[in-house]
TrEMBL record:
One of the record's GO molecular function terms: carboxyl- or carbamoyltransferase activity
Family in the record: Belongs to the carbamoyltransferase HypF family.
Coiled coil residues, start to end: none
Every Carbamoyltransferase Kae1-like domain range: 124-376
Highest classification ranks of the organism: Bacteria, Pseudomonadati, Pseudomonadota, Betaproteobacteria, Burkholderiales
A biological process from GO: protein maturation
Organism: Pseudaquabacterium pictum
The protein, known as: Uncharacterized protein
Any Pfam family hit: HypF_C_2
Domain HypF Kae1-like: 9-109
Renumbered residue ranges of the record's region Disordered: 386-407
InterPro entries to which the protein is assigned, alphabetical: Carbamoyltrans_HypF-like, HypF_C, HypF_C_2
Length: 407
């Protein structure tokens, strides 16, 4: 290892929970990040051991670690390891909000191609399954403003309840129940979802939603996709792997778009709109799915799946365009695992361009959690690049949440 007194300074970031990777980002402008291998999800002890080994390997790359960045979630293994490492090195442990990191990763990548790309304010649309908000909220569909290390939360998707917490992320029918409750149609939960989940389980979830028991709210884009997939009967049972229901919904949309033009499948303009609190209300898109006749055939359900994707993309684009005008920027950065959905991303980028906005999105590194560590490192590096001997500001909050809702 190089002499710590003369080695070039760098920030080490340890990622989050899912698809974990670590990243070492040198403070020298234009320097490329150094990545660990993909470790996988940190619920696996082997992945945790691999992360520890990668931390040692990255430290041996000849840089002097001057800060260690991590997710805000206090119970992630990566967070605990980051704090332990920072204490051992005598440097700051910098907590970075999950969706801030997603958008920051996009800016970091853009800055490698164009050194001043991260110097101007941008809007960020972060769309994924879960990330802890600064006050312990379950976020996942967020509109942000960023300028350097500064950021502001402008709004999120309309929140859905998570009946049963983590169980709702595994069983899409629960999210369909939450959507019915959000639409004022809770009386339909048992009749619609009983045949899929069992009448007793559906009735139990209906009671949970009515009483607000173990039903934390979430603005997660991923959970809205789950609700849509279950509403159409495309995937309602337990998911065997992450985003299985969302992938079934996307495949249905692709089938429809292969035979019909997008504009013929898109719902009416303006059906999705933001309220005065900055929440993007996409309940009308779910209502259209629940309103399909019971005898609707596969082609009609595929068309409805396409309409959900297109309506969501159009609503997101309009939401971002209004915020861009209000905040005097013309650039929107897109991040989060939902960008793996090609139907959503293609339409969203097209609609943003139509509105005269420049779009930044991940190209070289993953949009989801596998690329998150770069954003964490980038945020922690900003004040250090301005004054390399200073201590970065504490971006953590004291808010904590349970270690659940990792999906």
């Amino acid at each position: 290892m190089a002499d710590a007194t003369i080695a070039a300074p760098a920030v080490l970031a340890l990622g989050a929970w899912l698809k974990n990777t670590a990243c070492l980002l040198p403070l020298q402008p234009g320097a490329a990040p150094l990545w660990s291998p993909l470790h996988g999800d940190l619920g696996d002890p082997r992945a945790c051991a691999d992360l520890q080994a990668s931390v040692l390997a990255l430290q041996a790359r000849g840089h002097r670690v001057v800060a260690v960045a991590h997710d805000l979630h206090p119970d992630f293994f990566s967070t605990r390891l980051a704090r332990q490492l920072a204490a051992a090195l005598g440097v700051a442990a910098v907590g970075v909000q999950h969706h801030h990191a997603h958008i920051a990763a996009v800016l970091a990548e853009a800055a490698l191609q164009q050194p001043d790309a991260d110097a101007r304010p941008v809007l960020g649309l972060a769309l994924d399954g879960f990330g802890l908000g600064p006050a312990g909220e379950a976020w996942g569909g967020e509109l942000l403003w960023l300028h350097g290390a500064r950021w502001q939360h402008l709004g999120g998707l309309w929140p859905l309840a998570l009946p049963g917490g983590d169980a709702a992320a595994r069983e899409p029918w629960r999210m369909a129940a939450a959507a019915l409750q959000a639409l004022g149609r809770a009386a339909e939960i048992v009749t619609r979802l009983g045949p899929l989940a069992g009448a007793l389980k559906a009735a139990g979830v209906a009671r949970m939603l009515q009483q607000g028991l173990h039903c934390p709210p979430t603005s997660s884009a991923g959970r809205w996709f789950d609700a849509a997939a279950a509403a159409l009967g495309l995937h309602a049972g337990r998911q065997a792997h992450e985003a299985e229901a969302a992938m079934a919904l996307e495949q249905a949309a692709q089938r429809a778009l292969a035979s019909q033009p997008a504009d013929a499948l898109a719902p009416p303009a303006g059906i999705v709109a933001a309220d005065r609190q900055g929440q993007l209300d996409i309940r009308p898109l779910l209502a259209r799915l629940f309103d399909l006749p019971a005898e609707a055939d596969a082609a009609q359900r595929d068309a409805a799946a396409a309409g959900f994707h297109l309506g969501l993309a159009d609503g997101l684009a309009g939401w971002a365009a209004d915020a861009a005008a209000a905040h005097g920027t013309t650039t929107v950065a897109l991040g989060g695992g939902c960008l793996a959905n090609r139907v959503l991303t293609t339409r969203l980028v097209q609609q943003l361009h139509t509105r005269g906005l420049q779009v930044l999105r991940p190209r070289q590194w993953p949009a989801g959690d596998a690329g998150l560590a770069l954003g964490q490192a980038w945020v922690a590096a900003q004040p250090l690049r301005a004054a390399p001997t200073s201590t970065p500001p504490d971006l953590e909050t004291t808010a904590c949440a349970s270690p659940s809702l990792r999906g």
